């Protein structure tokens, strides 16, 4: 069953104006009323206590099923922080150094080749001058990519190999990693940032180092201890799984993926063919709230400690080359807004300059989102965590994340 989710504290006692918090529901209900979203669920907490939880619409509009606290959502890239925490748990045990070449455990990456110029049909490649190291995977500076980017010739090579929104039939995680290792890198490891399959490779690294499948390791070390009973690579209750939608480019309305040629992607949560630590998990609002509480608690929640406090602090620092932000060192992003003033830590984005970010936030805020417009952030300075769940591809369709931030911070009055 899913972790319970209810209002746990008087908003005023924790510095919020209740009427202003209600603007969250008022605003996003309009998304349902005009058809931009089928349904959604938003949660705001301070000091780990839920002060606002609202929802509207349907988890499956065609079936007439409403959004409920225990709705199962495809969280896609919100899987990445979970997998990154799992990796850092192994690091804390001394099983690897962040500077270790990943070829120590994944020999297929022993001699990576790097794209220099040319088309996808005739690319000019050169040898990597730096091995791919563990911290490159955690920070997306390894030179890997995604086929869905459509921004670089190497992206096209990924698509030609069967990797766009899914993987070729018959490949498990080990097979996927071997296939990616045969493709060229977009840049020399450590020199730039590019959103990629790096966290999926990290998941395979966890499997080899820990000696067990990724799903088993996550269940034993992260999900189980945190009580995230409804989170996994296979949805535990298909009747509560939200339907997946795409934005209709001509009308702006949400269109059921099954009727838009993306039915296979919609069904992956029911029958996954590989364990994608970078995007394969299904979760609930209650479960993911437990995870954000752990981050806000610097590795601990309700007496359960996954990581040391200094480890979480270290993960929440900007690890990009030269201390630059994502706009300065990153490749074109699959996102809804610029990332000026936002760096990247070990598994999630990190706000370095809220003024340059042009969004209410605090330095040190840890955040990330998923391809189907889900999002979360943890603000250690204000002791706030917030989450938004829906199922609309792409996440760039609407400025949901910036609007949610504004609506949360305008409600603070302390």
From TrEMBL:
Keyword Hydrolase: yes
Gene Ontology molecular function terms on file: hydrolase activity
Keywords assigned: Hydrolase
Top EC class for this record: hydrolase
Domain Beta-lactamase-related: 25-406
Stored Pfam families: Beta-lactamase
Entry-linked InterPro entries: Beta-lactam-related (IPR001466), Beta-lactam/transpept-like (IPR012338), Diverse_Enzym_Activities (IPR050789)
Origin: domain of life: Bacteria
Entry's EC annotation: 3.-.-.-
PANTHER family, A to Z: BETA-LACTAMASE FAMILY PROTEIN (AFU_ORTHOLOGUE AFUA_5G07500), BETA-LACTAMASE-RELATED
Name of the protein described by the UniProt record: Serine hydrolase domain-containing protein
Species this chain originates from: Actinomycetospora chibensis
């Amino acid at each position: 069953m899913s972790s319970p989710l209810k209002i746990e504290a008087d908003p005023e006692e924790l510095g919020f104006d209740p009427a202003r918090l209600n603007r969250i529901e008022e605003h996003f209900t309009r998304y349902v009323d005009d058809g931009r979203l089928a349904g959604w669920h938003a949660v705001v907490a301070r000091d780990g206590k839920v002060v606002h939880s609202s929802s509207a619409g349907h988890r499956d509009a065609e079936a007439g099923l409403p959004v409920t606290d225990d709705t199962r959502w495809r969280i896609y890239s919100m899987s990445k922080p979970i997998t990154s925490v799992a990796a850092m748990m192994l690091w804390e045990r001394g099983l690897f150094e962040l500077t270790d070449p990943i070829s120590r455990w994944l020999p297929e990456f022993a001699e990576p080749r790097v794209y220099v110029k040319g088309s996808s049909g005739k690319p000019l490649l050169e040898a990597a001058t730096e091995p791919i190291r563990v911290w490159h995977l955690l920070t997306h500076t390894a030179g890997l990519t995604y086929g869905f980017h459509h921004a670089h010739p190497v992206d096209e090579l990924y698509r030609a190999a069967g990797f766009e929104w899914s993987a070729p039939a018959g490949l498990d995680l080990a097979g996927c990693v071997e296939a990616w290792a045969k493709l060229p890198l977009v840049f020399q490891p450590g020199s730039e940032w590019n959103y990629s399959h790096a966290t999926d490779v990290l998941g395979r690294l966890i499997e080899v180092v820990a000696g067990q499948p990724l799903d088993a390791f996550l269940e034993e070390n992260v999900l189980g201890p945190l009580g995230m009973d409804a989170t996994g690579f296979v949805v535990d209750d298909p009747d509560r799984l939200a339907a997946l939608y795409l934005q209709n480019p001509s009308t702006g309305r949400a269109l059921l993926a099954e009727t838009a040629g993306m039915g296979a992607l919609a069904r992956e949560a029911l029958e996954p063919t590989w364990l994608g630590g970078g995007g394969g998990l299904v979760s609930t609002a209650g479960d993911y709230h437990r995870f954000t509480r752990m981050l806000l608690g610097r590795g601990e929640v309700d007496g359960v400690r996954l990581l040391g406090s200094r480890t979480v602090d270290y993960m929440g620092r900007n690890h990009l080359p030269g201390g630059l932000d994502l706009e300065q060192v990153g490749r074109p992003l699959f996102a809804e807004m610029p990332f000026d003033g936002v760096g990247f830590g070990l598994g999630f984005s990190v706000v370095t300059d809220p003024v340059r970010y042009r969004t209410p936030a605090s330095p040190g805020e840890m955040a990330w989102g998923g391809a189907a417009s889900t999002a979360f952030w943890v603000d250690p300075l204000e002791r706030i965590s917030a989450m938004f769940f829906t199922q609309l591809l792409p996440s760039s369709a609407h400025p949901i994340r910036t609007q949610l931030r504004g609506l949360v911070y305008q409600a603070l009055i302390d």
